[in-house]
Amino acid sequence: MIRYLCRRAAGAALVLVIMSMVLYALIGLMPGDPIDVMVQADPRLTPADAARLKALYGLDLPLHERYLNWLGAALTGDFGYSRLHHRPVLELLWPRLGVTVELLGLSLLLSLALAIPAGVLAARRAYSWLDHLISLLSLGAYSVPAFWLALMLIMAFSVELGWLPASGSGDLAEDGAQAWRHMVLPVVTLSAATVGGFIRFVRAAMMEELRRDYVRTARAKGLRERRVIFRHALKNALVPVITIVGLSLGTLVSGALVTETMFAYPGMGKLIYDAVMASDYNLALVSLLFATLLVLLGNLAADLTYAWMDPRVRIGAGVS
């Protein structure tokens, strides 16, 4: 286990370094820089002032030298300052990261809570009108753009009915009820990005398991249908679904950017959007790297859960 975790940590470090190179290059190739933005915003700054500021911040150096300087500082724990917020980047990221993890976790739980019963029901009634209805609804949920769904939910539940707030968030410690009301619409919007795919995978896995010999044997022994479904078939059907859940974490993280922006939800997605729009490249770069780290940790958790649910799997050895 320790050796496996060390290999995964080394792989994650390599991925983060490569991602930092790609992101830094893309940001560095964008037209303009923070100093140019400052010059445009303040007509009192002269070209000489701009050149002096670029030399001070190292923006007059070649791109690869700037990246090496940034990487050396980052390895010591110095991720720089946010030009937009005038604060260290890590001070801004930690609270926003917690908000996003909370949103992602609730959205994933809601998706699975809807997908597992719906997928099991569709598999048991395969090719019936109920199966077709569930498949149609899952396809619709999978196809709806997140920004459009967010707008429709805001119009329906915030503008017309006035039941739920359209933006912001509350503090669970101070006012839990109000905080939950702020979370309902973002969680529903983000869950729609994955629940349709989960339903289809659960249905396919359950249909395959229900055809296996051990299910026919269990039924022949007189076991109750509920026990056959939930104690035998579903447990085995969820093993491949875990892989899909791990792969969908990237979709959830990218969907969080749209969802948090639409609802002005103070998470990492909103922070990344604001940083890019304000040309706060340092904050945008570090935020995207933390989002990448979040996906890597989620994939590791999915692999460990896979090994825990399937006794044939040995960590680092595959299927025995």
In words, what does this structure look like?
- The protein has two domains: 2-89, no CATH class; 96-313, MetI-like fold, CATH 1.10.3720.10.
- It is mainly alpha-helical and 320 residues long.
- The strands form two sheets. Strands 1-2 form a two-stranded antiparallel ribbon. It has a two-stranded antiparallel sheet with strand order 3-4.
- The protein contains 13 helices and four strands.
- The protein has helices spanning 2-28, 34-41, 47-57, 63-75, 89-124, 129-143, 146-160, 176-210, 213-220, 225-247, 249-262, 268-277, 281-309, and strands spanning 81-82, 87-88, 313-314, 318-319.
- It starts with a helix and ends with a strand.
- It is elongated, with a radius of gyration of 24 Å.
- The longest helix is centred in the N-terminal third of the chain and has 36 residues, at 89-124.
SSE order and pairing:
Elements: H1 2-28, H2 34-41, H3 47-57, H4 63-75, E1 81-82, E2 87-88, H5 89-124, H6 129-143, H7 146-160, H8 176-210, H9 213-220, H10 225-247, H11 249-262, H12 268-277, H13 281-309, E3 313-314, E4 318-319
Antiparallel strand pairs: 1-2, 3-4
CATH class of the largest domain: Mainly Alpha
Question: Which percent bin holds the helix content?
Answer: over 70%
Count of individual helical segments: 13
* Biggest sheet features: 2 strands, antiparallel
Strand order of the largest sheet: 1-2
Q: Strand percentage, roughly?
A: under 5%
CATH superfamily of the largest domain: MetI-like
Mean pLDDT: 80
Shape: elongated
Broad structural category: mainly alpha
Number of beta strands: 4
CATH topology term of the largest domain: MetI-like fold
Distance, first to last CA: 16 Å
What is the ordering of alpha helices and beta strands?
Answer: HHHHEEHHHHHHHHHEE
Count structural domains.
2
What's the architecture of the largest domain in CATH terms? Orthogonal Bundle
Q: Provide the low-confidence segments as ranges.
A: none
Radius of gyration: 24 Å
